[in-house]
Amino acid sequence: MVMSFQFPAYFTAIFIITRVMSIMKISKPLDVHHKDIRAVDLATKLSVDPSAIESASRDFGGIVKAEPEAVLHPSAPQDIAALIKFSYSNSVPFGIAAKGHGHSVRGQAMAENGVVVDMRSMANNRRNGTGIRVSIDRLYADVGGEQLWIDVLNATLEYGLAPVSWTDYLYLTVGGTLSNAGISGQTFRYGPQISNVLEMDVITGKADFLTCSPRMNSELFYAVLGGLGQFGIITRARIPLQPAPKGVKWVRLLYDDFSSFTKDQELLISKNGRKDKSALDYLEGSLLMDQGSPDNWRSSFFPHKDHPKIISLITKHGIIYCLEIVKHYDDRTKHTVDKVN
Ligand SMILES: Cc1cc2nc3c(=O)[nH]c(=O)nc-3n(C[C@H](O)[C@H](O)[C@H](O)COP(=O)(O)OP(=O)(O)OC[C@H]3O[C@@H](n4cnc5c(N)ncnc54)[C@H](O)[C@@H]3O)c2cc1C
Hints:
The chain has ten helices and 13 strands.
């Protein structure tokens, strides 16, 4: 998508935005007791509490550790803008990083000597936070960047609707996965989550609030999606919805032969039209290996009674290949779902 922009215009825009955001990453230590920061009404939301600093210094990966000077607990996007504005107004700005649910594996949401913005604080503030708002008529949800996908699912299901593209694991924030890619078993058919966004509200490195979409501020839109927080902070994303499935047929196919496994997978992936009724709704491949406990091969995905058989297959072949497929059905199609494909 990005490549389709006019070359010079795109690179000029990216250069400017990257420069602005890289200024934010220059790590001049922040003096949280500086009189100017007290004056911008942020002091009460900036925490230097050791447990907040410790939590912001780590992520799921546990490989990198980087201590910020402070953690911002915003109650509204305006707090984030005020922090960025304050940093930008310094002769040498301090680093700022948005943190979603901290499930990065290599320090992507850390800001050494700077400020980590704990986006989840806004989820606790229902009055000022951006929340989750569903448009039933127009089939989209306006979702705060701080929201977890599990909460988006629960909110949209209340109206019988659901987003089209997911991550497998749902305890990740909307801002966090849209800054990456967001992939799951729907990606072969609908694209990753970053291909399923209608528009976003972003706070830029100059603390401007901008709405962007494929037609409005499009350079910013495509830079922020998959941009690892380097081009702005997502405070709202408009996510397209479709009717949630009434029922799902869930099948796991096991192979001991790699060629048959990939041949079948490629065949099933080749039927990927959004409106193609024969296309699967979910498809993922995985490996079951003879290593450690049964949990290494997602044993909970299989009926308990099948475990001994699966373990004997793994022991015999050393490695087993699994295709996990799903087909949605409703009252009209429940009698034919087994015949599709
Ligand atoms: C157990 C586990 C399961 C996973 N499963 C999947 C999966 O099924 N599919 C998949 O695609 N990925 C998966 N991932 C990877 C995960 O999607 C990414 O690491 C994701 O970025 C983490 O989201 P987070 O909310 O924890 O964000 P963080 O780790 O907190 O942040 C990730 C990046 O996004 C930036 N960021 C966070 N919020 C914002 C915002 N509002 N605006 C701008 N930038 C922001 C941060 O600065 C950082 O660069 C998994 C990771 C783990 C640990």
